[in-house]
Every structure is written in C-alpha cells, then in structure tokens.
Amino acid sequence: MDTKVKPDIDSLRINGDRLWASLMELAQIGATPKGGVCRLTLTDLDKQGRDLVTRWAREAGMSVTIDKIGNGFMRRPGRNNSLPPIMTGSHIDTQPTGGKFDGNYGVLAGIEVVRTLNDHGIETEAPIEVAFWTNEEGSRFVPVMMGSGVFAKAFTLEHAYAATDTEGKTVKGELERIGYVGEQEPGDHPIGAYFETHIEQGPVLEDNDKTIGVVSGVLGIRWFDCTVTGMEAHAGPTPMALRKDALLAATHIMQDVVAAAHRHPPHGRGTVGMVQVFPNSRNVIPGRVKFSIDLRNSTDELVDRMAAEVKARAEQVAQEHGVQVHIEMVSSYPAQAFHAECVEAVARATARLGYSHMPAVSGAGHDAVYMAKLAPSGMIFIPCKDGISHNEIEDAKPEHITAGCNVLLHAMLERAGT
Fold first, then answer.
1. Looking at the predicted structure, is the pLDDT value of residue 1 above 70?
2. Alpha-carbon gap, residue 418 to 15, rounded angstroms
3. How confident is the model over 177-206, as pLDDT tens digits?
4. Positive/negative CA dihedral, 14, 102, 87, 381
5. End-to-end distance of the chain based on CA atoms, in angstroms?
6. Among 96, 126, 118, 94, CA closest to 107
7. Cα 329 to Cα 257: distance, rounded to the nearest angstrom
8. For strand 288-297 and strand 275-278, is the pairing parallel, antiparallel, or unpaired?
9. Tens digit of pLDDT for each residue in 44-98?
10. In which element (H, E) is residue 361 found?
11. Do 294 and 223 meet the contact criterion of CB atoms below 8 Å apart?
12. Strands, DSSP E only, in 67-116?
C-alpha cells in the first residue's frame, strides 16, 4: 500500500529569496554603472547569460533543447511525457539601457517553479517547460520577438537569419559564433499551454495599489507615417492668411491622434513620438513635416476606428490649411486575446493566494502574443516602480516578484495536473 503523503498543493509557495538572488546574479552579466543591464542579444554577454540559465536548469534536473533560431527549452518530465508540456518563459536579452527584470523575471520565475516542485517532491502529470526566446527586444536585430515569431511561423527562419546589426553582422553568424544554433526545427515542439510572468512596464497596477494584473490580452497596434506638405516661405514678409504652414497643420492632426485615444477608453492609446520638420530653420515657415502615429486599443475594430477618425480629420485639415497630407501604414500588429481558461487559471490562483488583483491588458508586445496563436496562453503582471521599464532604473519589489511567481506556480499546476 502506498503510504506516501501527498503534498498540500494549496499551501505550496516558492522560495522568494532564492528567486531574487537568481535575478540579481543574472543581472551582473552586463551590469551597467547606473544599476541596469546591457546584454544585447547574441553578444558574448548574451552567451554568458544563456550559459548560466541553462546551467541552473540542468542543476534542477531539467533537459535542455536549443532550436535553430537559438530558442531554449528547459524541461522537467512529468508522469505522462507523451502530453505536451505546460510552458512558461520569456527572454533574457535586454535593451542597451535595460533593467534587471524585463523578460529575465519570466524565465527565472519558471526555473523557480521547477526548483519548488523539486523541493517538495511534487510530480506533475504533464511535463513542465521553461523557455527563453531569442531577440525579443529587437534592439540589435529586427524584427522584435524574433525567436517566438519564427517558432510561430510568423516569418521564416531564413528571414531571421539574414537580419543584420549596425555592423553588418547577421543573426545566423552570431548564433553560430556563440554556439547557440540547435538542431530542432523552430515550431517542431508541442505546447499544452503557455504562461508568461512579467513586470507591467506601465503604471496602472502601482497607481491602483494592486499586486497582480490578470492579463486578458495584448493591445492591437497600428503604426503610420504622416507627411504634411505645405510651402516654405519667409517668416517675416508672409502674412498669416497667405501661409501654407505644414507644421501648424500637422499639430492639428497630432492633437487628434491623442483625442482619438480619449474617444475610445479605457484602452485607447494615441502617441506621436517622432517629428521631422523641414527645413527646420528659425525664420522659415515649415514646408514639410513628417511624424509618426502610434494607435493602440484592445480590439482590431477599435484600433481601425481610431485610424479612420484620424485620417478623416487629416483630410479636413488639408482642406482648411491648403496643404497635402499623406498617411502611410508602416506596421500593424493585431490585438491578441488570451485563452479564457488560462486567464481564469491566473485569476483563480491569485484569489486562492489572497493577493490583491485587477484585470489588465498589455500595451507592449510579448512572446506570449505569438504563443497564443499556437496554444492556450495567459500572462501575469506585477507592478514596477513608477511604471518605468526599458530603463536602467527599472525596479520591482521582492514581495511582488514572489507573488507573481506563486501565481505562476499555481496556474501551471492547474493546467499540468498533480
């Protein structure tokens, strides 16, 4: 008769001190004087980070598989290894002036889940797997979210291999150089469900004094370039009524970009982040202005409605100011809703653990966006100080780091079975 006592799953908690120590140790690879991290993808520092993370995985009894785009998959077997693994993960590459937590937290939280299961002798029905994805940040090579994008067949391996950095070095060449070209074809790897734990990278959770964001999806994004063409003229002799001021006209359109977001709350976003003025001279009426438009919302229908409104306003401005306006879409990312069962698993775990929480959406892209096209997926957000990310001063509280990982643990156990 089996007299082994089954662990009390409900009381299971991760080792927050161990997770924090792992984050701080990884952050030493590429540490910057201001307390951040510069560990660009496929550099020698990235290799050191990958080597450390895979060493930790092997020490935790996990097998490691690398695919041809350099994605890493660290697996803890289950009772039934014919089942697709319940996966978590993120990325360990950073921005040039990045922080300690963006991406790195999601990978090391996954390893901490496995360490906790090992500590308590808990076997899951399905395997547990932790992934790190190549070039999520896109700061050295484009496109962003490269590894997960190739995995999800959003673009080809050959396209990714051919991408170059500012020095002309290719993704394929750098993968080979650091020894991270695996044999597995990207995507030839089943997933039962995918969870990603991440700092929010925005101020909403902190502003609402909540510990956990239960993420329902990722905002759709449309990027446009807008060019307004008027006529240069001398700022002194040209009367106001006879001007074709491209910058004046452009500012009206820019204001409507922001207004469009306010017209479609709560998840509308409208941003003009880049402006080029020609000829950019103090005493010349601007003859041409080119600026960026970034529109986001929770559904594609809402983003497209915002775009249509801005374009209609642009046509009106062109007529009123006697200028020409050309708006060209340069990039589009569809909104991605996460799987209801995964969202609910996160919500149930959060409630069971007693953490304060609220619904959340992600305004930034994550590898979970591509994984959601392949398997049921969900995300867990924790606050970051002042909502700051992609910055060396990016910060998160140890208790929030622990809370998010505890939620991840219980959500994954629900899907994996014990």
1. no
2. 20
3. 999 999 999 999 999 999 999 999 999 999
4. positive
5. 20
6. 94
7. 14
8. antiparallel
9. 999 999 999 999 999 999 999 999 999 999 999 999 999 999 999 999 999 999 9
10. strand 357-362
11. yes
12. 72-76, 86-90
Query: Angle at Cα 189 formed by Cα 185 and Cα 190, nearest 5°?
Result: 155
Question: Is residue 397 a contact partner of residue 383, using CB atoms and an 8 Å limit?
Answer: yes
Place of tokens 């069962």: 341
Amino acid at site 357: H
Confidence band, pLDDT 50/70/90 cuts, at residue 5:
low
Cβ count near 30 (within 10 Å): 22
Dist CA 20 CA 405 (whole Å): 11
Q: Dump strand ranges (E) for 80-142.
A: 86-90, 128-132
CB-based contacts of 259: which residues, under 8 Å, 6+ apart? 270
Which burial class, exposed, middle or buried, applies to 239 when counting CB atoms under 10 A from its CB (0-12, 13-18, 19+)? exposed
Sort strands 193-199 and 86-90 into parallel, antiparallel or unpaired. parallel
For 251, the 3-state DSSP assignment is helix
Q: Give dist(CA 200, CA 185) in Å, integer.
A: 32
Q: Which two tokens stand for residue 241?
A: 């009524």
pLDDT value at residue 6:
62
DSSP letter for each residue of 18-54: HHHHHHHHHTTTTB-TTS-B---TTSHHHHHHHHHHH
The secondary structure of residue 8, as a DSSP letter, is -
The letter for the amino acid at 312 is: A
Q: Are the beta carbons of 76 and 128 closer than 8 angstroms?
A: yes
Helix (H) or strand (E) holding 320: helix 300-321
In a 13 Å sphere around the CA of 161, the CA atoms on its Cβ side amount to 12
Average of pLDDT values for 229-250?
98
Q: Give yes or no for residue 104 having a pLDDT over 50.
A: yes
The mean per-residue pLDDT over the stretch 319-340 comes to 95
Looking up tokens 């799987």, which residue turns up? 339
